[in-house]
Design brief:
By secondary structure, the protein is an alpha/beta fold. The chain has 15 helices and twelve strands. The strands form three sheets. A seven-stranded mixed sheet has the order 1-9-8-5-4-2-3, with helices on both faces. It has a three-stranded antiparallel sheet with strand order 7-6-10, with no helix packed on it. Strands 11-12 form a two-stranded antiparallel sheet. Strand 6 and strand 7 form a beta hairpin. The structure holds pyridoxal-5'-phosphate (PLP).
């Protein structure tokens, strides 16, 4: 059977208009390296998200790497510190922890929310200096309580919000609970800049360090007063100022093409989230009637901005049955994110022995997801609902 419903339907929302706008931009732009388009996207994204600062980078993975390095540069995290993470996550949520000398501590997830719950955190928090929580597939657990637990214990709390742009709980957008949060704009995520990511924070000092850590460790993108301070303290004269590197960094600088796309797609974000939420509710309405699946609980959330619908079957045999049904109906599927990340070869190689086997493993064995695209047709919605019927 040919694929009828793909995981990723198109490169952009409103593909035709966006491609036409992009072609005109490429034809007319005088500059392609990071400039006005990127700055505007950062300002507007920060406003939309309701945070003071947004730093645009080349991907969600780069956002995670730059953020952890910036916290190490500021001595808020130290090599050897233990950092909790969600077992249901993406490789490059955990990899920066390992690469930068931190000790990853896996946390299990609540089966009905697919996210770390206060109970999952409770038994480990005494050991942790940091928590890099993933808000999985548009959902969260009791993230307000998790924030309070981290504050009470002095644990640095970060959100990997690469899968949950637009979701809301406790009157707040996800991505606004942690000291900083990261976002991905890879094709197929909520909005696409082809490749791209963002780091948000309300913290001045962290923002300045992120600006240096994103590009070479130099001061060129800092506010003037901060440049003056650094140059004075380090005895740097004007001739060398542009070529002085103050701290450990990467080059994770986006291009104006990514910035242009960010500005174009951000205008559609409310519409994208609204449509995806509508699809999600429809899928959930059908799925809840099927007792072959574990039900999802999102009653504590005001808005679920979901970009892929997860199905967790009550047995492995049932999972095989429904995956086959998808195949026979031309519906493309994949594991839920990447399954239990602590089962992955890289994790065994570098952090072996620190696995949790619980719900994450069950989701790994019995789960799959299909895409929730904002431009699904009636026909495609009907096929997907048919999959969820018993
Ligand atoms: C939770 C999570 N973190 C990080 C990333 C990495 O984002 P990117 O593909 O933009 O590098 C992803 C990608 O899907 C993700 O799901």
């Amino acid at each position: 059977m040919d694929i009828r419903v793909r995981l990723i339907k198109s490169a952009f929302y409103k593909e035709k208009e966006t491609r036409e706008g992009l072609a005109a931009f490429v034809r007319d732009a005088s500059l392609f390296s990071m400039d006005r388009e990127c700055r505007k996207f950062e300002e507007d994204f920060a406003k939309k998200q309701g945070r003071r600062f947004a730093v645009f980078v080349t991907s969600g993975s780069a956002a995670n790497l730059v953020l952890i390095q910036a916290l190490l540069n500021l001595d808020r995290l130290r090599r050897g510190d233990k950092v909790g993470f969600s077992s249901l996550t993406w490789s490059t949520n955990v990899m920066p922890l390992i690469q930068l000398g931190l000790v990853p501590v896996p946390l299990d997830s609540n089966l009905s929310t697919l996210n770390v719950s206060p109970r999952d955190l409770e038994e480990k928090i005494g050991d942790l200096q940091g928590l890099f929580l993933t808000n999985t597939l548009g959902f969260c657990d009791d993230i307000g309580k998790i924030k309070s637990m981290c504050e009470a214990k002095g644990v640095v709390f970060l959100e990997d919000n690469c899968e949950s742009l637009g979701s809301k709980a406790g009157g707040r957008l996800l991505g606004n609970f942690g000291e900083a949060s990261t976002f991905s704009f890879f094709v197929g995520h909520h909005m696409s800049t082809i490749e791209g990511g963002m780091i948000c924070t309300d913290d001045d000092e962290l923002h300045n360090m992120l600006l240096m850590t994103r590009i070479h460790g130099w001061d060129r993108n800092l506010p003037g007063t901060e440049q003056d301070r650094l140059r004075r303290e380090n005895g740097v004269d004007d001739f060398y100022a542009k070529y002085t590197f103050y701290d450990l960094a990467f080059n994770a600088r986006p291009t104006e093409i990514n910035g242009f796309l960010g500005n174009a797609q951000l205008g559609y974000l409310d519409e994208i989230v609204f449509r995806r939420e509508g699809n999600y509710k429809l899928f959930n309405y059908v799925a809840r009637k099927n007792d072959d699946f574990f039900p999802l609980d999102f009653s504590h959330m005001e808005l679920v901005s979901n970009f892929a619908y997860p199905v967790i079957c009550k047995s492995r045999t049932l999972a095989e049955k429904y995956r086959k049904k998808c195949q026979e109906n031309g519906v493309e599927t994949r594991p839920i994110i990447a399954g239990d990340i602590s089962k992955q070869p890289f994790y065994r190689k570098y952090a072996g022995g620190t696995r949790v086997s619980g719900n994450a493993e069950l989701v790994h064995e019995n789960g799959f997801y299909f895409g929730n695209n904002p431009e699904l047709t009636e026909d495609e919605l009907r096929i997907l609902c048919g999959i969820l019927e018993k």
